[in-house]
Specification:
By secondary structure, the protein is α+β, with helices and mostly antiparallel strands. It is built from 14 helices and eight strands. Strands 1, 2, 3, 4, 5, 6, 7 and 8 form an eight-stranded mixed sheet that branches. Helix 2 packs antiparallel against helix 4, helix 5 packs antiparallel against helix 6 and helix 12 packs across helix 14. It is elongated. The model has no long low-confidence stretch (mean pLDDT 82).
Length: 458
């Protein structure tokens, strides 16, 4: 008894939660993320529309013997008879010039209409509202055959189109029409497709004078298809949104890392592993950015980071975080030292190349160090980071500081400083950089023993 009393409340909570989740898929960032997906789906559907309508017209005209000219003559006959009040019958003889002109016209007209919408899809944002008009035109284009068959029956003109054949073809095409609305991943276009399909089915049944049982069965199938399509659209929308979110996430988190976290069940336990750490920084960014506005300063940083992220991604490095005008990254796994050193050298070359187009060149410093460190998911359960911590990070930061003007007497005028640990590890992996100079011994804050480093002169 108690369970029965709780059932209405449970159902209400379930459907209210479902409503909230579906509304969330229609608002804010979700709507913006899916805009490109809806456009891409519309393009694919438009290609499918061309194949479907061309195939359907070819079937009706060249296989079933329908005559577009006779259909048009029947419609004109009914219209003229209604206007004049007299019986008017127009005929188009098979094989005549008008007969072939009508066939060419119906294919050419459809092709031009298809091309016009394709150009709009490629060059204009008008497709967002125009697609609703296209949905209605699709049903009206299908309905014209039923109208022509009805007009032919009234005038007695043989249009070469059978009401029986139409009664079997039209419902199948309307089901495809409803499903095409669902795969548009937009509930409003899905609803428009469903409503127009239902109205088209009702009109077809009336025009072809279908038996009530047949008309009711076809209408029932369409209603069920609409129900499934309206639920399917939210499932597809959720999947598309997830894919779009992953695409955005890959701009912030390396693809390999997302796969590793997903494989591990959402979190990677912290463990001690050998890694190669890179810390990069723009030299004198405060002086460079002082005459710039906020927009220009951010554009400068974004251009600098864009130059750096490519080589890091190519070597499978994890971009841990941006540090104002610098960044922290690390490489783990096989040949981590060689990959990290190769990424650092590629970044130096890339920055030198980009400086050729800058009125004021950017000076940078990259420090590379290989050691063991704690790597894994760290943070509260609601918000975690895959990051690196440990003394190795501090050592790398000290090495990066050696290239700063604040380093004093220990300053190294270089664009790249590499610890001897990284050089030796990279050499074991088969990578050597003969352009590196050194070694030189430097004192590292927090360490009793000096550290041998190699450097690439600025």
């Amino acid at each position: 008894m108690a369970t029965a009393l709780r059932l209405p409340g449970t159902l209400f909570q379930h459907f209210d939660g479902l409503r909230r989740r579906r509304l969330a898929l229609l608002r804010g960032g979700a709507r913006q993320l899916l805009d490109a997906t809806e456009w891409e789906v519309e393009r694919v559907l438009h290609v499918g529309r061309f194949v479907l309508w061309t195939g359907l017209l070819a079937l009706l005209v060249f296989v079933l013997g329908a005559s577009p000219g006779s259909m048009m003559a029947s419609l004109l006959s009914v219209g003229l008879s209604a206007v004049t009040g007299q019986s008017v019958t127009l005929r188009v003889e098979p094989g005549s010039a008008v007969y072939w002109l009508a066939i060419v016209g119906i294919f050419a007209g459809g092709g031009l209409a298809w091309l016009a919408y394709w150009l709009i899809l490629a060059r204009s944002g008008a497709w967002r509202w125009l697609r609703f008009l296209v949905i209605a035109i699709d049903v009206l284009s299908l309905l014209r055959f039923a109208v022509a068959a009805r007009a032919a029956a009234i005038t007695g003109v043989d249009a070469g189109i059978s009401s029986t054949v139409l009664a079997s073809i039209v419902p199948a095409v309307l089901v495809l029409h409803v499903l095409s609305g669902a795969v548009r991943v937009n509930p409003f276009t899905a609803g428009a497709s469903g409503v127009t399909a239902l109205l088209g089915q009702i009109a077809t049944a009336a025009l072809l004078e279908l038996p009530p049982v047949q008309a009711g069965t076809q209408l029932g199938v369409l209603i069920l298809t609409n129900f499934l399509a309206m639920n399917l659209v939210f499932i597809l929308r959720g999947m598309a949104l997830k894919a779009a979110q992953e695409g955005v996430l890959e701009r912030f988190v390396p693809e390999g890392l997302t796969q590793r976290i997903a494989t591990a069940g959402g979190t990677v336990p912290a463990r001690v592993v050998p890694v190669t750490i890179l810390i990069a920084d723009i030299r004198g960014f405060t002086t460079i950015s002082e005459p710039l506005g906020p927009t220009e300063a951010v554009a400068l940083l974004n251009g600098f980071f864009a130059t750096m992220v490519g080589p890091l991604a190519a070597e499978g490095a994890v971009l841990d975080k941006y540090l104002g005008d610098g960044l922290l990254a690390f490489v783990e796994g096989e040949q981590h030292a060689a990959r990290g050193l190769r990424a650092a050298r590629t970044i130096v070359r890339a920055v030198e190349e980009s400086n050729r187009d800058r009125p004021q060149p950017i000076r940078m410093g990259i420090a590379v160090h290989s050691a063991e460190a704690f790597v894994g998911s760290i943070g509260a359960p609601a918000r975690m980071e895959y990051t690196i911590i440990g003394d190795a990070v501090n050592v790398t930061s000290r090495l990066e500081g050696l290239m700063s003007s604040k380093a004093g007497a220990e300053r190294i005028p270089a664009s790249l400083v590499v610890s001897e640990d990284s050089v030796r590890a990279a050499a074991r992996d088969g990578l050597t950089l003969p352009e590196l100079q050194g070694p030189v011994q430097v004192a590292v804050h927090g360490r009793a023993q000096p550290l041998d480093v190699y450097y690439l002169p600025a």
